[in-house]
């Protein structure tokens, strides 16, 4: 016999029982102000089902009795959630209203898979070795619980898919990352997330909006990394842009109208910038395949370059990058997202002008711009590591640092002698950041190996920065392994073996134009 799907109240009155999501009170009981029986039939925390990410507050459980899905002590769970919010949230994704997330943690209403995934990310950054060791078990449990509930199409499962995708990206499981991003995107379309952003309480609608745009950003990064086409190109304009983060955090649970005037936040400006990322990717692929003539490509570069600079120039005064603004965002606990926004600006600009590095005219304005943005990226990344509360620690930062480093290598090998001290210092800073990032995200090791492979090619060929198919894979397809590169070597007869490479590297080092990353 099948278990009854309707709640006891609806079965008794023979009403249609409709629930917004698993474990939530049905609409009939809500309308009649009844305590819904379906809400009371809770499973044990270890297998709790997903509920709406913005569930109405309920009476908090006593903290002394609280246990997370794998029976972690309350203080451990709370600490790991806070680490996640401070270190990762609002950077690669923005999918929660932090006060609501904390409230759900206190009252025990967080979906088990979601809580495991949040704690797994938090565990990566814990200073306590025992808590860091929890990460693998938490990740496995998050995936198990999520996979058991994949047919429950709801916002909580979309959020959990994004969290698991983040874990997969940093743990060298890029196929899983793409799979969970696609599942989340499909769920968002099925529940018509656009309608959620236009109805109900502001917290619920704004959270749904941020989830949608987080998927939009992931679509541009995740699938480019695997050399796959973007899927949200025609869907990205369906939701309004996210509001100011401080205004969002200050919303009360049942608020239905926005009291202060609406204004965009850091994530809104990040999305505006991300809209240019796709065309920049497409432009580089066209260069590599030779699908357009030089004049046409240069015109497209000018258009995109103007759009990026217009974006920067029209940022409001408090979002422009200054040390004073950084201190203000740090005070608001938004230092990391603020840094991430401006790192993205420099990264996209570096990619836009990268193909001009093979230009024989080093004074070209495009070459100057490319070097400027690569250098600025490195300086900003180093600053983020020096200012507490401004760290950027998500997986793709490693790839961005490698792209910056590839331009700095060009300066080291082919630049003017006066440029070498700065390039060497910035290369060293990038490498230090990569080594630090590797402590949290194992995938960074592959990024470091890619960078070392690229440097070896630079030692052997004057065409190392030519934007061909191999270079596109290095710059964009960060989740795919590098293949052998066919380039004219100098001298042509040299065999690329370890002994020869050591000799060549020593020669360049004597000129002050080589960095041995293995010794850094």
TrEMBL record:
Coiled-coil intervals: none
Record has Transferase as a keyword: no
A single Gene Ontology CC term: nucleus
GO molecular function, one term: zinc ion binding
Domain Zn(2)-C6 fungal-type: 6-36
Superkingdom classification of source: Eukaryota
Pfam families xref list: Fungal_trans, Zn_clus
Transmembrane segments: none
Stated name of the protein: Zn(2)-C6 fungal-type domain-containing protein
Native source species: Aspergillus versicolor CBS 583.65
Upper taxonomic lineage: Eukaryota, Fungi, Dikarya, Ascomycota, Pezizomycotina
